[in-house]
Amino acid sequence: LFCPCLIYGAYIFLPFDAPLLPTVSARLVYTLRCAAFATFPIVLGMIVSGISRLCSSALEPFGELHREMEIHRTYVSQSIHLFILYFFNMAVLATYLPPELLKLIPLLTGLFAISRLIFWMSYAIGRSFRAFGFSMTFLPLLAMLLWNLYGMFVLEPENLLS
């Protein structure tokens, strides 16, 4: 319930508009530019993971990982997988959205980045607290997937394979 309210509030109250993008290729470039900002939590996780591995007192660099290093490695791995799903869903979503709703692309990008950071912090606190951050990432992805399937099969079934 938190994610739709957050997206709706940001859509209404943030003072920016998406540019007019009449062609599909322009929309995909816009989505690619927005998706570049969604990689920030992943890159930050890689940096922190490398620093924690560098600063560990382990004599064997490929040996058993400490809990702190395991948290960062797991976070980066899961974030990369979710980013791939996010990016492909956003690319398809950008083709089906009406021009006045393209403001959702950067808002969903910001939600993805913030939710991954919340997941990382809650995962470091304890494994039982990470459900909130994961649901803030996964449920918008699921909503995008359902909208994309609706757009492909109901709104434009004649253009499904073209």
From TrEMBL:
Keyword Transmembrane helix attributed: yes
Species in which this protein is naturally found: Certhia familiaris (Eurasian treecreeper)
Keywords from the UniProt entry: Membrane, Transmembrane, Transmembrane helix
Spans through the membrane: 30-54, 75-98, 104-125, 132-153
Keyword Electron transport: no
GO cellular component: lysosomal membrane; trans-Golgi network membrane
The protein, known as: TMM79 protein
GO terms under biological process: regulated exocytosis
